């Protein structure tokens, strides 16, 4: 095929200075020549661009679909008149490199610290936090393995990383994004069940692991076509990495629409509905039941967690919306890929999408005191970071232990039982027993008696139909 391209290039160069009529005849003869040589129109477009017979164009580099398409060919031009409009000055490349490097650094280290905070402290190992571990792992992996690689490819329009990494590069982003957003969806559903149906059984550790495993399996299945149809093409002057679908660009565009629905529209719809119901319940009025201080403490904790997760979801939605819109529009109007400023627009939109991987640790730090204590502990070596005894207690003291398969939580705490000793009372008399029982009831309700002597009791166990505040991180 390369021999044909070489001969075809010489042929076009020989007639490039001919009249307009000759050029039109040449254009009409191209499809027949391509068909006779067994070369698809898309391959011809890419190869001829390298030979200098098509005006330079930027491929649509889709993180969720490889190269969606190349731009449609413009009129044939002499090689001497061609310039690459997407070559950037050094200062602009340096600024983009700094911006993308910041995203990768914050996303990787921030999410790794989140994982450490949860896994290294028993108090943090809750159902919600296990899903946050999955979310953090997905974001860190995306930033580490795909962000800079895609940036370099978009910047230079040259694939430097080999055929195997090309398959991984087109396969893993869909997997990671799917795992991220469905981890958030699982958290939303779990919060919905915990708050709207508090008496129904909660997720066990085993069920949580099964859900996380199922999320990754579905993610692999959705992204598998990207791996199957990925290929590299070595061309004069550069190498391309893209996805070549059997039925061409239309099939690729259809796949991208399916991916957009599954990893953006549908989960956001589910989370929108669940958090609307939960928000109405938490902020719209009191939940029927206990009106004690413990109840209000739990209600306040629930509101904080729901507020934090809503911010996480909204941030994700804002960051990824321009990305999906961009590829839908350029998939329909492919001539936009030849626009002078399209590369800068793509790099901006892609940076915004990738920046979603670095915001979550920042949100956790700002809105959750236990994650804030964990970050302080992780950076305790910094001279301006001080870990207080309160921070240590936030991460290490565990007082609330959830019973298995139940929303009723066993609360363990040391109580003080006040017993009034009267030497004139007979220990076996009814009045003495009544005094002891009354004193015990007062102690359990938080009362005290300054004139009484105190005796320590064994741990008492009480149950509450509401989830303890500790369950919310």
TrEMBL record:
<keyword id="KW-1015">Disulfide bond</keyword>
<keyword id="KW-1133">Transmembrane helix</keyword>
<feature type="transmembrane region" description="Helical">
    <location>
        <begin position="168"/>
        <end position="189"/>
    </location>
</feature>
<feature type="transmembrane region" description="Helical">
    <location>
        <begin position="255"/>
        <end position="284"/>
    </location>
</feature>
<feature type="compositionally biased region" description="Low complexity">
    <location>
        <begin position="443"/>
        <end position="460"/>
    </location>
</feature>
<keyword id="KW-0807">Transducer</keyword>
<comment type="similarity">
    <text>Belongs to the G-protein coupled receptor 1 family.</text>
</comment>
<feature type="transmembrane region" description="Helical">
    <location>
        <begin position="305"/>
        <end position="333"/>
    </location>
</feature>
<keyword id="KW-0325">Glycoprotein</keyword>
<keyword id="KW-0449">Lipoprotein</keyword>
<keyword id="KW-0472">Membrane</keyword>
<dbReference type="InterPro" id="IPR001681">
    <property type="entry name" value="Neurokn_rcpt"/>
</dbReference>
<feature type="region of interest" description="Disordered">
    <location>
        <begin position="419"/>
        <end position="460"/>
    </location>
</feature>
<dbReference type="GO" id="GO:1902093">
    <property type="term" value="P:positive regulation of flagellated sperm motility"/>
</dbReference>
<feature type="transmembrane region" description="Helical">
    <location>
        <begin position="345"/>
        <end position="367"/>
    </location>
</feature>
<keyword id="KW-0812">Transmembrane</keyword>
<keyword id="KW-0675">Receptor</keyword>
<dbReference type="Pfam" id="PF00001">
    <property type="entry name" value="7tm_1"/>
</dbReference>
<feature type="transmembrane region" description="Helical">
    <location>
        <begin position="93"/>
        <end position="119"/>
    </location>
</feature>
<keyword id="KW-1003">Cell membrane</keyword>
<dbReference type="InterPro" id="IPR001013">
    <property type="entry name" value="NK3_rcpt"/>
</dbReference>
<dbReference type="InterPro" id="IPR000276">
    <property type="entry name" value="GPCR_Rhodpsn"/>
</dbReference>
<keyword id="KW-0297">G-protein coupled receptor</keyword>
<dbReference type="GO" id="GO:0004995">
    <property type="term" value="F:tachykinin receptor activity"/>
</dbReference>
<dbReference type="InterPro" id="IPR017452">
    <property type="entry name" value="GPCR_Rhodpsn_7TM"/>
</dbReference>
<dbReference type="GO" id="GO:0005886">
    <property type="term" value="C:plasma membrane"/>
</dbReference>
<feature type="compositionally biased region" description="Polar residues">
    <location>
        <begin position="419"/>
        <end position="430"/>
    </location>
</feature>
<protein>
    <recommendedName>
        <fullName>Neuromedin-K receptor</fullName>
    </recommendedName>
</protein>
<feature type="transmembrane region" description="Helical">
    <location>
        <begin position="131"/>
        <end position="156"/>
    </location>
</feature>
<feature type="transmembrane region" description="Helical">
    <location>
        <begin position="210"/>
        <end position="229"/>
    </location>
</feature>
<feature type="disulfide bond">
    <location>
        <begin position="166"/>
        <end position="241"/>
    </location>
</feature>
<feature type="domain" description="G-protein coupled receptors family 1 profile">
    <location>
        <begin position="110"/>
        <end position="364"/>
    </location>
</feature>
<keyword id="KW-0564">Palmitate</keyword>
<dbReference type="GO" id="GO:0097225">
    <property type="term" value="C:sperm midpiece"/>
</dbReference>
């Amino acid at each position: 095929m390369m021999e044909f391209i070489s001969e075809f290039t010489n042929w076009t160069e020989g007639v490039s200075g001919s009249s307009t009529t000759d050029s039109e005849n040449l254009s009409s003869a191209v499809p027949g020549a391509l068909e006779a040589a067994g070369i698809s129109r898309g391959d011809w477009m890419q190869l001829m661009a390298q030979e200098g017979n098509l005006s330079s164009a930027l491929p649509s580099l889709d993180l969720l679909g490889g190269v969606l398409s190349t731009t449609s060919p413009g009129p044939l031009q002499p090689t001497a008149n061609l310039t690459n409009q997407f070559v950037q000055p050094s200062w602009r490349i340096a600024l983009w490199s700094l911006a993308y490097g910041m995203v990768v650094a914050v996303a990787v280290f921030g999410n790794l610290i989140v994982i450490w905070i949860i896994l290294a402290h028993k108090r943090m190992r809750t159902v919600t936090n296990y899903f946050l571990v999955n979310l953090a792992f997905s974001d860190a992996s995306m930033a580490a393995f795909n962000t800079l690689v895609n940036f370099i490819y978009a910047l230079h329009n040259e694939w430097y990383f080999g055929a195997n990494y090309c398959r991984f590069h087109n396969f893993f982003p869909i997997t990671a994004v799917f795992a991220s957003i469905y981890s958030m969806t699982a958290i939303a559903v779990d919060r919905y069940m915990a708050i709207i149906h508090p008496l129904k059984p909660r997720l066990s550790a085993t069920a949580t692991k099964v859900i996380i495993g199922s999320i990754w399996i579905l993610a692999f299945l959705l992204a598998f076509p990207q791996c199957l149809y990925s290929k590299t093409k070595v061309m004069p002057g550069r190498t391309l990495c893209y996805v070549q679908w059997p039925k061409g660009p239309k099939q690729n565009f259809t796949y991208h629409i399916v991916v957009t629905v599954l990893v953006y529209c549908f989960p956001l719809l589910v989370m929108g509905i669940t958090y609307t119901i939960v928000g109405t319940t938490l902020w719209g009025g009191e939940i029927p039941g206990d009106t004690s201080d413990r109840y209000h403490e739990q209600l306040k904790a629930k509101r904080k967690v729901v507020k934090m997760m809503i911010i996480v979801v909204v941030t994700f939605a804002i960051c990824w919306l321009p990305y999906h819109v961009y590829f839908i529009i350029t998939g329909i109007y492919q001539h936009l890929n030849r626009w002078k400023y399209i590369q800068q627009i793509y790099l901006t939109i892609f940076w915004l999408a990738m920046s979603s991987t670095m915001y979550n640790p920042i949100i956790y730090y700002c809105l959750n005191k236990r994650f804030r204590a964990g970050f302080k502990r992780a950076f305790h070596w910094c001279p301006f970071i001080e870990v207080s005894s309160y921070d240590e207690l936030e991460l290490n003291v565990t007082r609330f232990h959830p019973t298995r398969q139940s929303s009723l939580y066993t609360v363990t705490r040391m109580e003080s039982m006040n017993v009034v000793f009267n030497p004139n009372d007979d220990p076996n008399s009814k009045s003495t027993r009544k005094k002891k029982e009354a004193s015990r009831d007062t102690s359990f309700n938080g009362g005290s008696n300054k004139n009484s002597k105190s005796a320590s009791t064994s741990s008492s166990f009480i149950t509450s139909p509401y989830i303890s505040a500790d369950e919310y991180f």
